[in-house]
Amino acid sequence: MKFKETINQIKTILGLEVKLTQETLVDGTFVEAEVYEAGYPLFIVVESELSPAPEGDYELENGTKLTVDANGIISAVEVPGEEEAPAEEAPAEEAPVDAALMEEKFSKAFGEILLAMETLSTEISTVKAELASVKEQYTKLAAEPAGVTVPAVTKNRETENFSKLDARLALIKNLREDIK
């Protein structure tokens, strides 16, 4: 049961969506759980809000009986038509092997998650450094003047004091002199 709780906590921390399915009790109350198996939390739906189910026995409309502990976790599931005795004996022998295998898989997955987080942390640090560099360059560029005003260039300064017609005539005169 600890393994399932730990996996659910990891899913919650990583922001993975945990999909809950809704069932109805024989009294008409709606309940939700990720899976209706031992080790998973059971919630009661009250006015569109979820509350952990109080300790006790619950029966679904399909006849399945659930036993919930004080923490709102399903501790036992009794499906109608299944024989209880053989089902309980077989997992008792396999449980240590499965638990060890599950623990190994969990450790491996946890190691991979840590490695991925370290990689992301390194990449984030690199991006932050690049961002700081770009900000510094932007600040330097923003401090520089926008541009230098360029004075008007004329061949002959005398044309500035004339009217437009005089300026055109002076320009034609200068062009003739350049051609000669």
Please mark out the parts with pLDDT under 50 across 5 or more consecutive residues, or reply none: 85-95
Count the beta strands. 7
Tell me the overall shape: elongated
Main-sheet strand order equals 1-2-3-4
Range of helix content: 40-55%
Instruction: Name the average pLDDT.
Output: 78
CATH architecture term of the domain at 2-82? Beta Barrel
CATH fold category name of the domain at 2-82: Thrombin, subunit H
What is the percentage of strand-forming residues?
15-25%
Number of helices: 3
Structural class: alpha+beta
Which characteristics define this entry?
single chain; 180 residues; alpha+beta; Thrombin, subunit H; four-stranded antiparallel beta sheet; three-stranded antiparallel beta sheet; 3 helices; 49% helix; 16% strand; elongated
Describe the structure.
- There is one protein chain.
- This protein has a domain at about 1-80: Thrombin, subunit H.
- It is about 50% helix and about 15% strand.
- It has helices at about 1-15, 85-145, 165-180, and strands at about 20-25, 30-35, 45, 50, 55-60, 65-70, 75-80.
Q: How would you summarize what this structure contains?
A:
The chain is an alpha+beta fold. The protein is 49% helix and 16% strand.
How does the SSE layout of this entry go?
Blueprint: H1 2-14, E1 21-24, E2 30-33, E3 43-46, E4 49-52, E5 56-59, E6 65-68, E7 74-78, H2 84-143, H3 164-179
